[in-house]
Amino acid sequence: MAGKPKLHYTCGRGKMESIRWLLAAAGVEFEEQFIEKNEHLEKLRKDGDLLFQQVPMVEIDGMKMVQTRAILSYIAGKYNLYGKDLKERAWIDMYVEGTTDLMGLIMQLPLQSAEMREKNLALIIERAKTRYFPVYEKALKDHGHDYLVGNKFSWADIHLLEAILMVEECKPDILSAFPQLQAFKGRISNIPTIKKFLQPGSQRKPPADDKYIANVRKIFNI
Amino acid sequence: MSGKPRLTYINGRGRMEPVRWLLAAAGVEFEENFVETKEQLEKLIKDGDLLFQQVPMVEIDGMKMVQTRAILNYIAGKYNLYGKDLKERALIDMYVEGLADLNELISSNFFQPADKKEEHLATVMDKAATRYFPVYEKVLKGHGQDFLVGNKLSRADVQLLEIILLVEESKPDILAKFPLLQSFKAKTSNIPNIKKFLQPGSQRKQPIQEKDIPRLMQIFH
Q: Where along the sequence do coiled-coil regions lie (chain B) (predicted)?
């Protein structure tokens, strides 16, 4: 049974969102089973569905895959979004790890106290402006291509767009000093599969609100 | 230019240790450039050598690679330690990411407040014994082979050995209930490249000592 990939997670972004983006960008339809209560999580654990007792978990090609990076690498490889050789993969990996670090900072905000949140928000903006975005701006400027690696659409481009939009939610004018990234954002957003994903009604999830976080704390006991 | 990979990091395990293990297991000689002062790190940044202004950085095949996972993926791919197809890679990735999580938990003990360290370590050892090691014991039991994936040495095996030894440093009897991991440890330790790396005088690094902490903090903050 070929079947669509089935995603197990809460009904929110968290660590699953990058996977939703990648599948959507690859034009792959997927199903979602939302964990809404602690009992749902415990059942998955008891049934032996979660290799390390954790989600995300994605049922795909007969596997119950866990570990976000493993899942993303598999999808990228399967749908030809991972470069044409080892060196292109190396660049894609470096770029993706950078955007992962940046988005990782943002992902923690809702779980922090108001004071920590304010401090970390300032750090995120500083890092985006001085450590991360300049790298991608330079890469695009240097080769003048539409995409980050190998003049071909890859996982790195999808992940960068996701990161740009996420940082813009923190600071709408974050790209003001990055003309290449502005153009990049426009181009990639217009790719049909991505354009569709960015429209209301898609499986893209909204930022976490207090109600969602309260439920996440209950489900995961944190 | 020697052509050997050149590792830039502090003279300690940290995030570079898995890279040292993997290169050693692959039989690849490498050089090391130790960052010993804040000024040295700042120079690397100013010279544009660090893509995201961070170490680890590995000069390899004309690239200045950063980001531990990118580096490890490249080395594993280059030296055929990454499985034979996408599905084997998926398994290897899952196993390796689990081990990376455990490694992260152990490393995070360093940053716990002094009065919480012991309790935290106990929790981590418990996770090793109930969440992580049972998985690898079960995998080995399931196929009865010497290696985790595809009946062939891969980065997953190298990293599993690294983590077993790391955990044993805190809890020497951690493998008491895991007979297959015990024999895995013995067999894998005996692979010539790995055996060599485990001997004194190799480039394997020792745990950070309390006395070194102030100096290291100064480099990065």
A: none
With CA atoms as reference, report the closest residue to A59 among A87, A98, A33. Answer: A33
CB contact at 8 A, A23 and A65: no
Does A77 contact B86 at a Cβ distance shorter than 8 Å? yes
| Best to test chain A binding among B51, B55, B96, B104 (most A CBs inside 10 Å) | B51
Whether B66 and A94 lie within 8 Å, measured CB to CB: yes
Q: How many CB pairs under 8 A join A and B?
A: 75
Cis status of the peptide bond prior to A172, with omega within 30 of 0:
no
Q: Of A92, A85, A91, A61, which is closest to residue A155 (Cα–Cα)?
A: A92
ipTM of the complex: 0.96
- Give the pLDDT of chain B (221 residues) as one tens digit per residue: 469 999 999 999 999 999 999 999 999 999 999 999 999 999 999 999 999 999 999 999 999 999 999 999 999 999 999 999 999 999 999 999 999 999 999 999 988 998 999 999 999 999 999 999 999 999 999 999 999 999 999 999 999 999 999 999 999 999 999 999 999 999 999 999 999 999 999 999 999 888 888 888 889 87
Instruction: Please say whether the beta carbons of A52 and B135 come within 8 A.
Output: yes
CB-nearest to B69 from A63, A66, A69 is: A69
In whole angstroms, give the CA distance from residue A170 to residue A109.
11
Side chain identity, residue A189: S
